[in-house]
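Notes from the pairing session

We agreed to fold both candidates in a single pass and log them together. This is the raw record for the first candidate, unedited. Please don't reformat it; downstream parsing expects exactly this layout.

Candidate A
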Amino acid sequence: MGNEKALSRRVFLTRLGVLGAVAGTSGLLPRLSYASTSPLGLLNVVDLLRPVLDQLSRDTMNGLAVFVVPGPDAYSAAQGTPRPEPGAMEARTPEFLIRSLDNFLPFPQQLARPLTAALQTGLAPTGLRLPSLVISLTGLQVGTVDQALSILLQNNQAVPLSLAVALVLNLAATQVDPAAVNGPFLSPFSRLSFEQKAQAFALLEGGDAALVALLDAQLPQPLHDSVSGVLEFVAGALLEFSGFGSYSEFGVFNTTTRALASRPVGWQLTNYLPQGVVDGWDDFLGYYQNRRSVTG
């Protein structure tokens, strides 16, 4: 069984196109016991890393949001579909995605932690760099995503769903284009073209055998053999959430006054209520056609 798992991982990494390309770098580094080597302690190190991982998550959500509703932003231009009208970035869709994933969707840690561990295994050979090298007062150098995840998994704090989703998208991105580990932006997924992002979603929705094998091997019972279904559901939900967030009033809704601060992007794109908000329609004033009673 151990040889089968090792072979599956090697096949996966070979298909990823990076096996051997990172020999002698982060892909061969052992997991570090940061809890014992840092004078600040594990929790403080984790607190330093969370904002950095949050940057990676947000950048990934930027690339996801414009995949569904492009606009005049740099992310849309990078994927090859810039548009003059406002899009997901102007609608604050990435913020909508992060809040929805982290605060409103139930995601048990019994699934989150082993899934994140599997993603850490898959991302290690890519040498994917963090947004910035974390040196700080820890006395440590944490420069790659897999190193940061190794630290994160050494404590019992919750793993945000937005981070797990971002890691899944970035792992799929490196499978579509191994060169996406380098380039503009912070995340490999945001560096893909529109067509390549579609290929990444095809991998998730189609249950790519190598991707499923790697993730499934890390999950506890009774979750074995459920990865393909989870990935398919997540892929569909992400596209739906991105569209819903972009066309909703989220970006301009003031939760204190419970009023719109400006005209929502979705209204502009659909020409909804072109004359502004109305309190009602004249046709519905009083009784319809002056009727006072109805007979059978």
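Candidate B (folded immediately after A)
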Amino acid sequence: MQHFKQPVLIIFSIFLLTLMGCASKPPHYTPLAPTASTYQEIDRTKNWIEKARLRQMDVLSPSNFAKAENRIEKARDKQVSGKSDIDVLEQVAYSRGWLSEAMRVSKVAETQMPGITDARKGALRARANDYFPKEWASNDKDLEKLTRSIERGNIKPSGKSGPSIVADFRSMESQGLIVGLLDRANSLIKSAEVENAPKVAPVTYNTTMAIYLSTQKLIQNNPRDTALIRKASNEATDHAEKLLAITRKVNAGATEEFAIRSLQGPSRSKQVAVARERRDRAKLACLERLLGQAKKVRSQFEPTEAEVFTENGKVMVRLKALNFPTNQATLKGSRNQALLQKVNRALDSMGPARVLVEGHTDSTGSNSRNLTLSEQRAQSVKDYLVVNGVVPRSQVNSVGLGSEKPIGSNNNANGRSLNRRVDLVIEPLTPTLRR
């Protein structure tokens, strides 16, 4: 009996080794021509790998991407050691096969976790990985668990946990920008507080804190509006510098009013200073109202349905979940109807002065066709809002912009999907300011 078991065990071991050998071959393997240049094919593949890394395939399909890198390094080693061109090109073909599989899995990951590449890229731009290394490592580890699960064919966990990971990356983006753009202002305010600013210069301190906190909210709600948040951050820093200077003058024996006048310079009258402060307060009040309205509108939608932010004094609603049939402008399906009903409720709660419906497309097809299609889709949404909504026809307009304003790359499917969208530009009612 013992003699019988040993041959069976050997055969089973050979079978396992054979199976493992097969598993190391990518699903889609295409051999290269034996006459191909090993130098050119290696360099070309390395370039593709680096482009894939920029598209974050190293985190969206970590195992397949690592295999692609490993195989191209083996190809280079074989080339350096003088192995035959056939051996070298075989490794290159393996690398490309695994890279192709990484691309396939990455697309699945992006579908299961909408916005993941955009959210993570935004957090990287904001240097969140440098400012919050522990939180970054933890979120990346959670993402890796989901993407490895997708590689094994199990997509269920990503659909359940993916949205929270996307939300964490977006939060890290805004927090990273706050640290990066408001670090000096924060440091100056803390120094002023140490020197008793809240007590000795209360007017300046309260004004500075209002501007500082308002800028934080602005960044949290508009992390991609670079010009606006940089301008607001510079203003917050300027006020923080003045706060510290005024605090020190008061501690040296001056009154706060005298310290403020001394920093304004001889050419500035008290009336000019008061007018400027009044304008600043009015701008802050308008900004607070706008952010409050955006928050109220945002509460009407799930993160996967719409993105809500402020831009140029208006509330923007990006209808991510609104879908049209290919090359059509007809609104179909219960999901579209449910989403537009939420839009109506949001508009009702806001009571806007004007609404502009913008239609956008990707760059596929001719410019004239894209422009026409975007106009028709914007018109469809406008018609729905007018017929079923709370805003009069005279206050709703529509425009088609074709592929003029992309928010993603038109070189890949995920970017094109982001570009095919309908945006609502909502202009709030402007309250009359008392003089």
